[in-house]
Specification:
By secondary structure, the protein is α/β, with parallel strands linked by helices. It has 14 helices and 22 strands. Strands 1, 2, 3, 4, 5, 6, 7 and 8 form an eight-stranded mixed β-sheet that branches. The protein has a five-stranded mixed β-sheet with strand order 14-13-15-16-17, with helices on both faces. Strands 18-22-21-20-19 form a five-stranded antiparallel β-sheet, with helices on one face.
Length: 499
């Protein structure tokens, strides 16, 4: 098989359970080859022989997780690795396991929000998750059959690291709120958690409830890799609607919704309104800038003009839009800090949020922990999250469409279309954003749509995502018509019916 086809950004992902018309890609043999190749990567980049490596292993709730975990363990044991099996675990906890146990590396078995029959592998070293080039190197090594020498002495023992991780989150809430009842700072709070039958149920049961919170309105806490209730994805409309109903029915002060492996989260306020995408970025930015006044908040490229004003004018920070992809925004925030520009937060509208104080780890549980501490502070002032968000200008309309690229060399075609659109925008006298780092972003004044569009090339797929926002009713359609006119004359290699 072509192992490089399993590369998905900074992850390995593929079909792991057989469904009609879709063959299994993550077979036991393939997983063992990839795990062995990861050990070779560790020997090269960490300068530690595989026979002396200590590695943590975890998984989300997917049905194929136990099988894949056993395959990873077999590969580790035959090369002498000392393995710590953390069982059902969140992805961020597996990075923390590297620091806490401690160990040299970690592997998480997850495919995030992907369909139930898929699965994947994420890899961690002490300086964070492996990046795209690292994944490509590992898969190339697997393709070549690379593996360390066979060695005796390999072992595998169960680890209760998730208990340690939950205790860490509890301490953050206790120290952040500093309530008179230190052991129960959340007494009097009703907080409902929707784990989507993924790995996030621990947050209600092992973090919030022991601190005194009423979590009785929570739903779908039990792990079930068939995901029988809804897709565990805060960006999914049905999933978020379910979480909003949960909050309303439970009369909760806050709702939390996690994705499958808990590296992303969304929240719902006491009125049942979702705090997601731009609203979530706004809340996280307000929290981050309290400790880093004037700092740069790095976001992905599709954030709104209203959010830009909120970060810069209301919060006094700097808004730095960058490329889509959570690892892209994290790497950009790291780069800014290296060159002397303080940047306390990298956050994508998908819900990936990485705080500098938390190792720039995208951790949904850490994000909502900080939000809960902020909610408690607001409550002491007689306020809520809605008051924090009151200055945030939100668009009257927004449209998101995806234009498929049907040419085989989709990347070259997509780049050519974007270049042509930029030339067209200049000819038309449109206002091109000077600080855009991905695709082309154009703003329009009152009378011409009073909003903006962004056309970019998808990070992984043969698609041109198009985002349009307007501050006035009907404005988004005006902007859409301008784009339609352009795409009609540049439709070669595109399927423009969605636009």
């Amino acid at each position: 098989m072509d192992f490089l086809k399993l590369k998905s950004g900074t992850d390995v992902r593929g079909a792991a359970m057989e469904i009609p018309g879709v063959p299994v890609e993550l077979t036991d043999q393939a997983v063992e080859a990839i795990a062995a190749a990861f050990l070779v990567w560790c020997e090269k980049h960490r300068n530690i022989p595989a026979s002396t490596l200590r590695a943590a292993l975890g998984r989300d709730s997917r049905l194929s997780g136990p099988r894949i975990g056993e395959a990873v363990k077999r590969a580790f044991l035959r090369h002498g690795v000392q393995c710590f099996d953390c069982g059902l675990a969140s992805t961020p906890s597996m990075f923390m396991a590297v620091l806490d146990l401690p160990c040299d590396c970690a592997v998480q078995i997850t495919a995030s929000h992907h369909p139930w029959h898929r699965n994947g592998l994420k890899f961690f070293a002490p300086d964070g998750g492996l990046d795209g080039p690292d994944i490509a190197e590992i898969l190339t090594l697997a393709q070549q059959g690379a593996c360390p020498p066979l060695a005796e002495g390999g072992s595998c023992q169960p680890s209760a690291h998730m208990d340690q991780y939950a205790a860490h989150l509890r301490r953050l809430i206790q120290e952040g709120i500093r309530a008179e009842d230190h052991e129960h700072p959340l007494k009097g709070f009703r907080i409902a958690v929707d784990a989507g039958n993924g790995a996030g149920g621990f947050y209600a049961r092992e973090v919030l409830a022991p601190l005194g919170a009423d979590v009785s309105g929570s739903q779908f806490l039990d792990p079930d890799g068939s995901f029988p209730n809804h897709i565990p994805n805060p960006e999914d409309k049905e999933a978020m609607a379910s979480a909003c109903r949960m909050v309303t029915e439970a009369q909760a002060d806050l709702g939390i919704i996690f994705d499958t492996d808990v590296d992303r989260a969304g929240v719902v306020d006491a009125a049942g309104r979702e705090i997601n995408r731009n609203r979530l970025v706004a809340v996280a930015s307000a929290i981050a800038l309290e400790r880093a006044p004037g700092g740069a908040i790095v976001t992905d490229s599709i954030t709104s003009d209203g959010l830009h004003s909120f970060i810069e004018d209301t919060l006094g920070g700097k808004h730095h839009r960058f490329q889509r992809g959570y690892k892209n925004v994290i790497n950009e925030s790291l780069r800014l800090n290296r060159v002397g520009v303080p940047s306390p937060l990298a956050i994508e509208t998908s819900g990936h949020a990485a705080f500098q104080e938390n190792y720039f780890l995208d951790d949904g549980a850490y994000l909502v922990t900080r939000i809960i501490v902020k909610l408690a502070a607001l409550r002491q002032q007689g306020k809520g999250l809605e008051d924090l968000l009151a200055p945030l200008g939100e668009p009257a309309e927004s449209i998101e469409v995806r234009v498929p690229i049907v040419e085989e060399d989709f990347r070259a075609r997509g780049q050519a279309v974007i270049a042509a659109l930029e030339a067209h925008a200049r000819e038309q006298g449109w206002q091109i954003a000077p600080d855009n780092h991905e695709g082309i972003r154009v703003s329009f004044p009152q009378g011409e749509g009073q909003g903006w569009f962004l056309v970019r090339l998808s990070v992984h797929d043969p698609i041109l995502p198009v985002n349009i926002e307007s501050d006035v009713p009907g404005g988004a359609e005006l902007i859409r018509e301008k784009l339609r006119a352009f795409f009609q004359s540049h439709s070669q290699g595109l399927d423009c019916r969605t636009l």
